Fold this protein.
Amino acid sequence: MQGGSSGIGYGLKYQARCISDVKADTDHTSFLTATLSLKEENEVHLIRISSGGTELVCEGLFSHPNEIWDLASCPFDQRIFSTVYFTGESYGAAIWQIPELYGELNSPQLEKITPIGDNVGKIKCILWWPSGRHDKLISINEENLFLWSLDMPRKAIQVQSQESAGMHHLSGGAWDPHDVNAIAATSESSLQFWDLRTMKKTNSIERSHVRNVDYNPKKQHILVTAEDESGVCTWDLRKPKTPIQELPGHTHWTWAVKYNPEYEGLILSSGTNSTVNLWRASSSSEDEFTSERLVDSPTRANQLEPLLHSYIDYEDSVYGLAWSSREPWIFASLSYDGRVVVESVKPFLSRK
């Protein structure tokens, strides 16, 4: 099923690649997004869905000195977030704090709490502890994993442990919400699994060009990958030789995948074909959806189709995806031309 955008939009001034749900904001449905301009002063936008649900409102606009390649909101403090940025010569990362009086200022300055890992290589992403208040962070660069301990009162961060991943050219990763000692890291040729207690690799899945990975928050051992050639694949880590399910993905590169935080089996994917796909994926060959039923058509045949909907009203590649944890039927997407679109998937949800 295909369709244009029925959602609400918001435009950034420059090109952009990353967007994050503000999980710690329990009063509003909020997202952070940021720009990617090499020559201009970049911006971080705090946007919220209006009380009537009809528009996206900018609640804060903050200057950022460099182009932003990765952004993640702190899971326990809505004013704190991390960025990975490129200065034009090298990559860096930092933790930032939004000023308390941002609603009354025209051009508020972000407070830089601490840089992360100066001179530790080409950082790709920052991972926050999956849930709750904790002082641990992970940075992933092309060849190394670092586990950091963050001291907020002292505004300092230090390496707790680190390990080389070898010449695998790591590109990103995800922290297992069911086992906080485990992470998955993507690379050019494999998906790697690491134990943070020993900082050793425990397993790997040999796959070419895995772009993105996300754990199923509702089922242990289950995750999803975005891959250049195979599209979208779901995996059971107890049987890692072959995927549970291979979905066709996108007509060009599949770039991002996200499991819904609440509705079992609901997955978003996006790619360089200017499309966002909504999938109903199984977690095993015998899977049945119990607490929630996903519907697309009154016919049984269509209900079994994994593709529920394609959102095609984009003019550029879609690199950024974020589900709302506060309203899990809502997601935000970000295309490279700086366009944010927020959509509701309620038409595809039906309670028994």
The two ends are 23 Å apart (CA to CA). The chain has one domain: 8-282+303-348.
